């Protein structure tokens, strides 16, 4: 590939042919649902390739007021059955994929839309016989077509638990972008992004006094789900002592909030805790084998 960028689904734009591999269905629902809703809110057409036996768009109906039938009725959302891109043998056919996409592009302006978002879960095609060879050809063709289009973008998603790693790497390389989930907070200094298996929050950057409120808000949003909330500190570059106290005291300060379990502390944090540990709450909880 001549270029590969990392793009949050909320920032995708025409010309992006993005690949997204997920580890858990809730991750797929969050990312794909966000991509679809973003397009619907912008007045774009959304075309989703669905399994014939299940025409649900992942994550769409989980959002209040986003009932799928509403968008199907207006024509803004089109759900295409998987059989439309399969040949007589039932196998994925790259030529049919491009033909279906071409038909959708042809009707776009006639139906009154300025842009279109395509999306499909191609896991089924990759794990079929000769699926890797067919998908590499199809994804490469799509990359050329979408990458040069001023009106089209596409999000391809794959189940990492089902797809062989080497095959997934090959199809991933046929995309000009890598899609990531929309961050709960990102101001260029601190990025807070949800994780899904396990359920939690990934912290990247610096937590100082100006960002305590953002951390608290993100934790409150995510702690509504049952069970512990894992806070991955792998990408942490700085954290002040007040923020560490915030993490330790979070469940006690917020009724019904989940217990926070901290993981992957960077070396500087381990050293800080060893140095000033007597000034911190004793109830910092660390993931097994990851603590200090």
UniProtKB/TrEMBL annotation:
<dbReference type="Pfam" id="PF13466">
    <property type="entry name" value="STAS_2"/>
</dbReference>
<dbReference type="InterPro" id="IPR036513">
    <property type="entry name" value="STAS_dom_sf"/>
</dbReference>
<dbReference type="InterPro" id="IPR025847">
    <property type="entry name" value="MEDS_domain"/>
</dbReference>
<dbReference type="Pfam" id="PF14417">
    <property type="entry name" value="MEDS"/>
</dbReference>
<dbReference type="InterPro" id="IPR002645">
    <property type="entry name" value="STAS_dom"/>
</dbReference>
<feature type="domain" description="STAS">
    <location>
        <begin position="201"/>
        <end position="277"/>
    </location>
</feature>
<protein>
    <recommendedName>
        <fullName>STAS domain-containing protein</fullName>
    </recommendedName>
</protein>
<dbReference type="InterPro" id="IPR058548">
    <property type="entry name" value="MlaB-like_STAS"/>
</dbReference>
